[in-house]
UniProtKB/TrEMBL annotation:
It is found in: Cell membrane; Membrane. It comes from Corallococcus caeni. Its main location: membrane. Keywords: Cell membrane, Membrane, Transmembrane, Transmembrane helix, Transport. Residues 132-414 form the NADH:quinone oxidoreductase/Mrp antiporter transmembrane domain. This is Monovalent cation/H+ antiporter subunit A.
Amino acid sequence: MPLLLPILLALACAPLAYVAGRWRPGAAAWMGAAGALAALGALVHEWTTQAPARLVLPWAPTWGLSLEFTRDGLSGLYAALALGVGALVVLYSRAYMPHHLAEEGRPARDEVRFQGLLLAFMAAMVLLVTVDDLLLLFVALDLTTIISYLLIGFDREDPESRAAALLSLVLTGATSVVFFAGAMALGLQYGTFSLPRVIEHAAHSPASTGALVCLAVGALGKSAQVPFHFWLPRAMAAPTPVSSYLHSAAMVAAGVFLLQRLYPLFAPATEVRDGLLAIGFLSMGMGSLMALVADPFKRVLAYSTIAQYGYALVLVALGSEGAPLYVAIHAPCKAALFLTAGAVTQVTGKKKLSEVGGLRHSLPVLAAASAVAAAGLSALPLTVGFFKDEVFFHALARRGPAFMAAGLVGAGLTLAYTLRLWWGLFGGPRQAAPAAPRLLVAPVVVLAAAILLGGLVPGLLVEPARAAAEAMRGEPSTLELAYHLDARAENLLAVGAWALGALLFATRHAWTRALSRGLAAGSRVGAERGYRLLLHQLDRLSTWLHEKEVRDLRDRVASVLVPTGLLGLAVLGVTPLRDRFKVGPVGWADVTLVMALAFASAAALATLRAKGHLRLVLLISCVGFSLAMVFAFAAAPDVALTSVLVETTFTLLFAGLLALLPRARLERAQHEAQNPRGRDRLAAAVAGASAFLLSWSALSHLHADRVGARTVQLAEAAHSPNVVAAVLTDFRGLDTVGEMSVVVAALLGVTSLLRLKGKR
């Protein structure tokens, strides 16, 4: 299966790097980069020698679920970005991480864990852009959320890093859940989760607006667009390689990719697209203004990322065929600038523009390479960045003067904050600094060379850009990239943007302080403050509920039983069933069954007045064994045997545990049990009534052909002679795996806490 080769190679990078790192920590980066380049080579080979293809692997055929993958222009472009930029960032981190770990006082072997997480994120990104199924899109999206949480919080001893990781997890995780709701709505609407079939159905029956809004929210959260933008600047607490990769070619790009992949669904929904257009322009403006006043290097770049993906969102909302190209050009420019900021921090120990300057003399190669990257981000001629603004201005010119003016201002602001960043690092009076390690500079030089090559030979990008545009819009693309020395609107807007940007940079000292005060005042009522207030109130509510719940064991049990009982009663109240409760005949053949039920009921009632915990355990076991008799008389010997085994095991466990507990605590518990409170009686009444009525209602509407016979047939199809075993291992297989995963995760958490306690 050639289509899977790049995916499998990308998935193999992290394990291979881990194995190499066990031999020597520094080998992890070299092995990971080699694997990424091998996957990139396989991808390019398939892309250039084979036509677009799809692969469908049946997963759960009875549910209509399959593992579907695609190789088209859009997936190829984004996978190439993830693999190419990822390989360079991994090599960069080989020189960056030892110094970073030494500063944090951490062992050198932690580099292996870092490389593994970075490569795992790369694999998740490749998986995300190649799957062709809505449910798989959600799974891959969640993988990027989880791994990014671990990467952003890699410096786990740093409170700022932990807070930033939690913020990114909560925000991007919550929006991913909203995306899942939209995917489920579409699956129910069209009867399939296969993306090509969903798009085919949508051509005749447009997707519901609610589903599209949910999908858009999931994408906007990932791409850090207003009002979900504030997690991105906080994420700059992560090591620089993480910031460079996740926020240039990977995580933030994933949000825009989702919108481009799902564009055929959004195309008819003009209201949703207008909303995306407004959010794109708002993100452009807000991100640009914040970048003009931010002091830390990486924060300037973070706000720039918000603004630049606002551009990309505008292009998607306008349906421009240049939208994929814009992201592809932005990625190497932004990655190079992030890597430059990390190199400057490592050689100078500084993180703010106000603390550095004049480094062009000490770091001439880095200054020149980053100047090319800055020129590309600012869309200057002879760099590939020139063409990202050309397609942007072309799309705006077709919508009228107001859009053109907004685009001109946005591009002018881009040039202004990019000049401010580069000049703040390398301009001004000369300052001495140590030479940067070659491996910190080499990836920036490679990215700068690619930016120059794309600007000098733009024809290299035409075919990939057209293929991506065709995959996004579902129609042939006529995109062209060339320099035109005339007075067309795109050129005039570009010249105007350069003039505006230069003017803003030259006069920055006159307006920076006023802009800073205005933005600071606005932040007091922004989305981030709302998030903090919401989190604070949820924390207070959680504390209140916890105090109420854990007051004693009876309250804890009631906190589970009462809501469950109320939910059951609510279900009965809204379910329109005729003859809901029926009383069936009882004959002589049912005497043994009635006797077993009566014995179980008597044992249950006896537990209410039992004195002594051993007697209580024995009575509870009598209830269980009596129910096993009920199953035996009801012709379910397999269930009866299972019940006997479970009751025997738990009886022995309870007896052993009670023998280990202090006698004083047992006597106090016995006294409390013999003196129930009013709320205990109320909780028991709600839970008991709900269980009784639900059971009666269910037993009143049993149909063998609907439940029993069908279950037996399915068990035979699953090659299992035992219905119970088939239910547990086959019908509920995924549910069982989920339960086991929760238990394993809890055990791992407990083990980690015990190890941490031992160290302290």
